[in-house]
Task: inverse folding
DNA sequence: GAGTCATATGACTTGTGAGTCATATTACTT
DNA sequence: AAGTAATATGACTCACAAGTCATATGACTC
């Protein structure tokens, strides 16, 4: 946890520091991320960084916490809505569309959190990250159980296998979207999500009915 | 490329050096991987490492090359066999089973290469890695095209989407197997692959027919 | 056994960047 | 306005590990 000094800062400054840090870690990774650069980009002296945080590691871990909380604060309504009774096959669509919006508005944060999730920065892993990953697993499992109960998911295959199947596809597709956004720079994100409509539909269809010829 | 001095070494010593390096990078990542430790574990002086390699980066990149080539040399027959006319749905089974054997015999190398593939070590990415990744993509696309021609893959969905779907599932499952092996240490790898028979069958079935209730 | 390569060695140099600290600045209180 | 507490600053320390190099060892030739 950061020191009191950090929490006493005005909101705007806190945000500037955090975004500078996240951007630095995003660009150079944890080991090569430079606190001096973070300070400079946040318009703050290097020494101040150590009035705010105990160490580089603490700063990094708080980046994860801060991003996660910001994303939940900003997009949380959707998350809780989808937790209710959404069809697994619509999940992919909803999820991808949501991510596209987030990518437009919070590019760095989304990519940073994806990296965390994918296990880059593995040298700073801590329990909270494991927790975050388990949370998502849990949510998928819940959806699968509900799907079975409501009769739109086949019951002859184990939940855990269905979960691996689903998360595999959904993560890979998410990555695909992200790479499109990442490699094309800022501009492509301005485009409409509708261009992916067909692709998402294809993936959902495959999830539902598989690749086998009828 | 390593220096001549390295290539003049007797095979056994070369291997000892490479395995020590791979193990070090596996344990501590690229940035925190220590050349001194590599040297010590290989039974060689630190200075010698610099008679063999220009820099740490060169050593790392050669680890990737060396592992890949060793794996191809050792298991390549299977790879070329599966390139011929294997059914996509059997691919998963063959592939997982193969990986289980490899995991038994070449634990460190398999996990190291998987990490490379998953984009950890992103600070040392070079063209050869991108190449390796594109190769695998290509292979999957080829299988899909053949599957469509031979009438066992549906034709109403784009190849690229089918590829994302397939690689997503197969990579996620591979990771699942790997984690089982990784977390349980050396011992679990001794067990027979047959324990996963049911799970692999489940995944293949899902690939073919999807999760939707009939 | 003298002379000439090729290789091995580990103490040393050096760049780097995390973390410190004495001092300056600002903010708040009476 | 004086006094005190909180925060800001950037030059400095210092540990670490990549990379160097002078010297030692060995291998091979005549």
Result:
């Amino acid at each position: 946890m950061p020191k009191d000094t950090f929490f006493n800062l005005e909101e705007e400054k806190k945000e500037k520091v955090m975004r500078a840090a996240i951007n630095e870690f995003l660009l150079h990774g944890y080991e090569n991320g430079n606190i001096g650069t973070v300070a400079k980009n946040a318009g703050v002296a290097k020494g101040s960084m150590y009035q705010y945080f105990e160490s580089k590691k603490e700063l990094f871990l708080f980046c994860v916490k801060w991003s996660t909380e910001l994303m939940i604060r900003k997009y949380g309504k959707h998350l809780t809505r989808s937790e209710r009774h959404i069809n697994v096959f619509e999940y992919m669509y909803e999820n991808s569309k949501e991510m596209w919006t987030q990518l437009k508005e919070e590019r760095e944060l989304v990519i940073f959190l994806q990296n965390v999730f994918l296990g880059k920065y593995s040298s700073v892993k801590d329990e909270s990250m494991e927790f975050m990953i388990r949370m998502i697993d849990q949510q998928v499992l819940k959806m699968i159980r509900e799907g079975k109960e409501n009769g739109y998911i086949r019951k002859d295959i184990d939940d855990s296998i269905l979960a691996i199947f689903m998360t595999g596809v959904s993560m890979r597709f998410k990555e695909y979207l992200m790479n499109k956004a990442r490699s094309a720079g800022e501009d492509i994100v301005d485009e409409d999500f509708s261009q992916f409509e067909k692709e998402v539909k294809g993936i959902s269809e495959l999830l539902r009915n598989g690749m086998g010829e009828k």
About this structure: Residues 55 and 91 of chain B are 39 Å apart (CA to CA). The interface with chain A takes residues 28-29, 31-32, 88-89, 118-120, 122-123, 147, 151-155, 157-158, 161-162, 164-173, 176, 199, 202-203, 205-214 of chain B (CB under 8 Å).
